[in-house]
Amino acid sequence: MKCVRCRDDAWVEVRRHNASYCGDHFIQFFHDQVRRAISHDKMFSKSDQILVAVSGGKDSLALWDVLLEEGYDADGLYIDLGIGDYSSRSRDYSEQFAAAHGRTLHISDMQQSFGVSVPLIAEQTRRAPCSGCGLAKRYLFNREAAERGYAVVATGHNLDDEAATLLGNVLHWQTGYLARQAPVLEAEDAGLVRKVKPLYRLSEHETAAYAVIRGIEYVVEECPNAVGAKSILHKEALNLLEQASPGTKQAFLLGFLDKARAQFAANDPHELRPCIECEQPTTTERCAFCRLIAETRDPKPRVARRYGKTRRGGDRRKIRAGDTATAGAVTAGVGEAEPPNSDDSPSPV
Amino acid sequence: MKCVRCRDDAWVEVRRHNASYCGDHFIQFFHDQVRRAISHDKMFSKSDQILVAVSGGKDSLALWDVLLEEGYDADGLYIDLGIGDYSSRSRDYSEQFAAAHGRTLHISDMQQSFGVSVPLIAEQTRRAPCSGCGLAKRYLFNREAAERGYAVVATGHNLDDEAATLLGNVLHWQTGYLARQAPVLEAEDAGLVRKVKPLYRLSEHETAAYAVIRGIEYVVEECPNAVGAKSILHKEALNLLEQASPGTKQAFLLGFLDKARAQFAANDPHELRPCIECEQPTTTERCAFCRLIAETRDPKPRVARRYGKTRRGGDRRKIRAGDTATAGAVTAGVGEAEPPNSDDSPSPV
């Protein structure tokens, strides 16, 4: 395999583009794709202050790196979710990157600020951990960015993440989520910050290759909560299709953005107002994050399983759904204005 | 495993309904689902004359059987596509069923009527065989039904077929096909006959179980052209998701019909007029079937591959696409009013 640019030995194959690249030309390809995303979707300019949502993983650190290399003014925000060793290691990698590049890394510690962690939220509310985690991150990214005066929050969602989310949304025809799945979510309200995904044209494999070639150290292991998550299954199904027909994921995502999203967006009216507790914008009286924190501190009484059991299991299922109905309500606002990448799946930042 | 109705040994498991059935109660379940489809989608009544599109396979013969058992006035139409032994065996099974039930089976023989067969169409037009085959069947089902005075054409598309088609349409955001994928396609024009799919709530496994339990003999092997077809890959991906989460296919299809299809249909205006050759309704001057037959009889000159080859294979691909552009144009009309179940995939009737 030879580099399509210089005919040197190729390091990375990009099958959907029918191309292979040597290290240097792959980095150039990567930059080209990011530049293309930024300009095609009018994400931000050199004068904007950007806050990168940093998890310590390959995607967010590759994103931060490429933005700095391109000359953007980009700081980082790390949210400590309290997921044991995994959180400490992720934080270390994030801090190392910030120090090596002489940039500011803001830290938001859920335990310190709210007295809760992701494992505690999952335990107390009996939601899938990724669900509470995603909601908390979306809320905190926005709030921290708004309070610190950043114009835009950039997240490391890549093509695989976005295609898997889209598949999940389409399998259940989550029309509200479909309306709001986009590489750019405008700040509809004074309290909302614009969200952008500059890596949405690059695959997971490519962000990993970029990080490796650039010598970026990142936390390699998956979040321990990700085991069995729906998004992993959706990625598996898409990989099967991509294998047989390279370019499937890209055509799926870009085709949606080009031809279908507007139809869903036109049918998704929603009005924002300040949360009565935290004053962040929301579609409901109290925002989903405040409800989540309240429920974690004061969990609903558990319904004993045996009353719900029937021969065919029908009622048992109903009780499970009822347990989480309030916290799981679909709303739009802070932590909600963008759809979750998948309600029970790990999100990459 | 016990039958959920009578606690006898179960023969068939229906995981998406969290149920298992003995033979008798499975047949009852099958009838219930067909009755539900017919009434929910207002497909037809006991006074309508129905033409069942019969292929000799499990789906179409199960459909014909259940409609007769339910007391509907249903004849069959078999289209001889000229696919060697496969076509002869399919025809035999169809004729045996018709004779055993004392019903009329109309035969439409492509070789006799048009001097072409599916293999010849594929060879001459260099389209995937399933593409020309699907188009020809849709055209002939409608034309034969209209000319013979039937009110409605019923096809054996099951839940797996419909979900796989939907996935294919969604992966490429074929908005025109999405607008027209439905269990009932109304006759928009005098020359069009209503199309219905009474098995769309039943899985492939269930139609096979029904045929076996009812003692229906059918052609078991797949069409030899189906090897490598996209719909098989799409079914594989959906099976992966269904395995992890039973009910995924049903939620995907029914959710689409319930929540999303109307949005695509609203953006799909098209006007029908008679084909200048066969006078069947079409959106183009000459209908897709007449163009297909013409192209088969008088193929376009082949572009030598070597001129199209480039180092990266880009132009080669373009030439392939150009070759079939005319015959592959997306139009709506006879053989076109309903979207193909997948353009390069076997269709079950």
Give a quick set of tags describing it.
homodimer; 349 residues; alpha/beta; Rossmann fold; 6-stranded mixed sheet; 14 helices; 11% strand
- Quote the CATH topology of one domain in chain A: Rossmann fold
Helix and strand content put the structural class of chain A at alpha/beta
H and E order of chain A? EEHEHEHEHHHEHHEEHHHEEHHH
Poorly predicted runs of 5 or more residues of chain A: 307-332
**Assembly state:** homodimer
Number of strands of chain A: 10
Proportion of residues in β-strands of chain A: 5-15%
| Structure annotation, total helices of chain A | 14
CATH top level class name of one domain in chain A? Alpha Beta
Mean pLDDT of chain A: 87
The shape of chain A, in one word, is: globular
Radius of gyration of chain A: 20 Å
CATH superfamily of one domain in chain A: HUPs
What is the architecture of one domain in chain A at the second tier of CATH? 3-Layer(aba) Sandwich
Give the biggest beta sheet of chain A: 6 strands, mixed
What is the helical fraction of chain A, as a range of percent? 40-55%
Give the terminus-to-terminus CA distance of chain A: 33 Å
Q: Largest contact between protein chains?
A: A-B, 33 and 33 residues
